[in-house]
Amino acid sequence: MTVFALAGVSLGVMEQAATAQASPAKRVLDAAVPAVPTALTDSRHRRLSIPSGSLETGLVAFTEQAGVKLVYPTELTARLETQGVDGTFSPVEALTKLLEGTGLTYRPAGASTITLVNPRYVQLGAEPAGAVTLDELHVQGQATRQGRAAAAAAGLPPPTGTVGQPPVPYAGGQVGSGTRVGFLGNRSLLKTPFNITGYTEKLIEDQQAVSLADVVLNNPSVRNDAPPYSERDSYFIRGFSVTNLDTAFDGLFYLANPRRSFTEGLERVEILLGPSALLSGGTGRVGGTINLIPKRAYEEPFARLTTTYLSDAQIWTHADLSRRFGDFKEWGVRFNGAYRTGATPLDNNAIEVGVAALGLDYRGDRFRASLDMTHSTQNVTAPTSLFNAVAPGIPIPRAPNNRRNTANPFEYNDSRYGMIAGRAEYDILPDTTVYIAGGASRYNEDFLTSNYRVTSVTGLATNLLAIQPQEIQGLSGEVGLRTRFRTGFLDHQVNIAAVEANNKNFRSGFVPPVFTPYTINIYNPTYLPTGSIPTIGLPRSASQPLFAQLSARSVAIADTLSFFGDDRFLLTLGGRYQEIDQQGFATRPGPTQGQVTSNYQESRFSPSITFVLSPFENLSFYGNYIESLDPVASAPVTAVNRDELFPPAVGRQKEIGVKYDFGTVTATASLFEIELASAFTDPATNIYSVSGRQRNRGVELNVFGEVVPGLRLLGGVTFIDAELVRANNPAANGKAAPGVPDTAFNLYAEYDLPPWLAPGLTLTGRAIYTSSMFYDQTNTQSVPDWTRFDAGLRYTTVGANGKPVVLRALVQNLLDNSYWASAARGFLAVGAPRTFIVSASVDF
Q1: Which residues contact 822 (CB under 8 A, 6 or more apart)?
Q2: pLDDT at residue 164, rounded to an integer
Q3: pLDDT value at residue 357
Q4: Is the pLDDT score of 553 beyond 60?
Q5: What predicted TM-score, i.e. pTM, was given to this entire model?
Q6: How far apart are CA 359 and CA 422, in angstroms?
Q7: Does the bond joining 312 to the residue before it have cis omega, within 30 degrees of 0?
């Protein structure tokens, strides 16, 4: 995808453009563009002085001197020159002169966005005489009453939007200019009272992300806590566990792959930091919520083929196809298919993955709908395992060589996943919309795996091979209403929603046969002979009994108040009444199989209050109080009380922050405090229990955007003081929470080399730092800090067909450091070794 730069030309510029042209063009734009504030339609002339030279530099100067906004793909301008302007011009006159001789023109790209385009790359239809030269106009979001009326008067199709699509990218194209904030809908960055970031499809492609775990590495408040070559992804957000099971798909829970989400069908990955009871119900986690936004069809026909090589011997082919149909392109189809197979840098490890994702959408005047279907398979040979426990009283041993795999070559994890989800909305009035969404998923997993307990600082460990097949089923639905109205000097945006989500887990823990434990050394593992463990006729996931069921039901209402209609101060008052019902069942064969062994219910009204204060257009202060109702994870199979269930826990967050938009760069800062009941496996007794509370206090500093033309930054630093309070164990009370680093730093950078030096070449790099963390509750065992560096190149050119060709090369863990990447939840996970990734993308 293209790299976007935001510099500042708004919809008013296009209306000015229409004024400068013949009246037929004016009617076209009036029909398609909603009403905009008077300040954006000011056509007064301004004194501009922009020298000839780089078009990119000229456009930045233009936005500063003209005081308007512009979004454009920087790769279109990177090698172009402008003759400049000097004199008194209206903004549209100046922009037209700046683009003379470049082959570029401008067009609307959304309800409040203008972009630059190269007409060679788009198919232009016939234009009426005297019309502005624009390719097809498409406005995202809900049209206004004036827009509909103007369209009818002009005999044109009404402005339409694609249901659920995210806001346009911000400068640099790596993050969105806004995100979906749960049932509150899309909000711009500065009007959102939370720390939330949407990572774009472009960033995912440029970083060659394989799964969701690669994308979250861009956020310093998120860390992975599962090995990269295992069967799953899992995360720590703001110091609290968030598994892939807790990930939302298009706003719905228990539909995403519960083990690993692949990136091929994703338009955007949105990460909300902190609890989300008001926004999404009791199915989110206190640390944060990850929401996956599926891809939608582009305006013009699109086909891209990407072939990738990943060391040591993985070949990955990905096809991305997009078409729109109908008189007004109201029907959209987007298909993504991928297949990847081969050996990884880890000893004996190989992964085979197949992904198919189909996204359909319809966009009409008042009705919009979408349907998504996804299927994936993942077969992992010798999946690397977590070191499930370390004996108390011994120092944590150093991390083994990052290529060393302790798993036997005959171990495996084979999984199948399927999902279908739909969403529809209807405008019953111009400012009132009702919507409905729902979906279902099924995941099957057959698993022969190791479970290690490290017993010596020399690396000795006891291993227990076991079989753990399971099936996970998800069902989720939501209905809601959004409306806007005014009472006196107050504008209201009212949101009402009802949600129900259900998750069923079919398994029986470790199932026979459970093999005899044996001793290995994690630094020099010895493998059991092939054939010593029977792998034919083992229990399968489809035959497992119902082990646990979780149902979450909720009703929410929120009113966002805007005083005096200028959105300078936004106050949101609301809450969600939610009920979580968690049941456990007897799974052992016998007369009690299928009976309920535990049943926990928790009902609660979770209030929330947020505010956004914007003293200036580019500055906002925000604050929130919000809660969560978290299902507590059942005791792991390695604990003495394995599979025991616990009542849901209430989490509470208080947060304040500030956001400043410099035009092409945004900086944010936030302070937060979160409290939640603490659950942990005691290394001394091997009993898993809820023991006191964990209180995390933190500071987050983030930056993203295009600092200067051609230089893009994305990253930040997070400081967390995670403390155990009111712990049942007096020795743990007041100690640092296990698995939480007190400092985490991320910085990703891209630099486009000057056109005269290496046209089309971009350098990329990333640094990730995680401080030391404690392993146990009493803080007697710890793992050291670690730093990882990545480096890469990207070359963009134009193929023989006039469409983009992109070559990428990336080295992850450049220095090949071996380190413990996580010590969370009583586990240890080794970081990935040096990995080479090379790819070529060709558009057709």
Answers
A1: 223, 224, 225, 226, 236, 739, 828, 829
A2: 59
A3: 98
A4: yes
A5: 0.83
A6: 10
A7: yes
Express each pLDDT in 791-806 by its tens digit: 999 999 988 888 889 9
Q: Give Cβ neighbours of residue 466 (< 8 Å, ≥ 6 apart).
A: 448, 449, 451, 510, 511, 514, 515, 637
Q: Pairing between strand 252-253 and 266-273?
A: unpaired
DSSP H/E element including 641: none
Tokens (6 digits) for 321: 């196809």
149 to 25, 145, 152, 362: CA distances (angstroms): 17, 6, 5, 21
- The helix/strand/coil state of 27 is helix
4-154 and 302-843 have identical folds: no
538/368 Cα distance (integer angstroms): 47
Q: Are 676 and 697 in contact (CB under 8 A)?
A: no
Which CATH number describes the domain made up of 4-154?
A: 3.55.50.30
Positive or negative CA dihedral for 599, 605, 609, 610? positive
Token digits of residue 572: 């949101």
Q: Look at 38-47, 60-69, 227-236, 494-503 and tell me which has the smallest mean pLDDT.
A: 38-47
- How far is Cα 773 from Cα 192, in angstroms, rounded to an integer? 32
d(C-alpha 23, C-alpha 21), whole Å: 7
Give the angle subtended at the CA of 182 by the CAs of 178 and 184, to the nearest 5°.
80
Among 2.130.10.10, 3.10.20.600, 3.40.1280.10, 2.40.170.20, what is the CATH number of 302-843?
2.40.170.20
Amino acid at 237: I
Q: Does residue 23 sit in helix, strand or coil?
A: helix
pLDDT confidence of residue 74: 58
Name the token pair of 406: 């302790």
Q: How many CB atoms lie within 10 A of CB 597?
A: 15
The residue among 440, 435, 297, 291 whose CA lies nearest residue 362 is 297
Distance CA 18, CA 33 (A): 11
- Of how many residues is the chain composed? 844
Phi, psi of 297 (to 5 degrees): -65, 145
- In a 13 Å sphere around the CA of 76, the CA atoms on its Cβ side amount to 24
Classify residue 286 as exposed, middle or buried by CB count within 10 Å of its CB (0-12, 13-18, 19+). Answer: buried
- Please state which of the ranges 179-193, 287-301, 591-605, 740-754 shows the lowest mean pLDDT: 591-605
Q: For the chain, what percent of residues have pLDDT higher than 70?
A: 84
Question: Cα separation of 174 and 609, whole Å?
Answer: 30
Summary count for the chain: helices (H), strands (E): 9, 47
SS3 for 145? helix
Q: Is 712 left (phi over 0), alpha (psi -120 to 50) or beta?
A: beta
Indicate the domain borders of the chain.
4-154, 302-843
Q: Which 3-state string (H, E, C) describes 258-313? A: CCCCECCCEEEEEEEECCCHHHHCCCCCCCEEEEEEECCCCCCCEEEEEEEEECCC
Q: Give the residue among 791, 789, 799, 814 at the shortest CA–CA distance from 760.
A: 799
CA 103 to chain centre: 35
The sign of the CA dihedral 444, 449, 453, 454 is negative
Enter the DSSP assignment of 801: T
pLDDT tens for 568-612 read 999 999 999 999 888 888 887 777 778 888 888 888 899 999 999
